[in-house]
Amino acid sequence: MNKKVARTVSIDPAADILKVGRELHRQNLLAAADGNISVRLEKTKILITPQGTAKGSLTPGELAMMDIDGRVLTGAPSSERQMHLEIYRRCPLARAVVHAHPPTAIAWTLAKPALRELPAESLPEVILAAGRIPVVPYARPGSLDMARGLVPYLPHCRALILARHGAVCWGDTLDEAFRGIERIEHCARILATAVALGGLSSLPQKEVAALRALRAQIGDRLL
Question: 13-218 belongs to which CATH class?
Answer without folding.
Answer: alpha beta
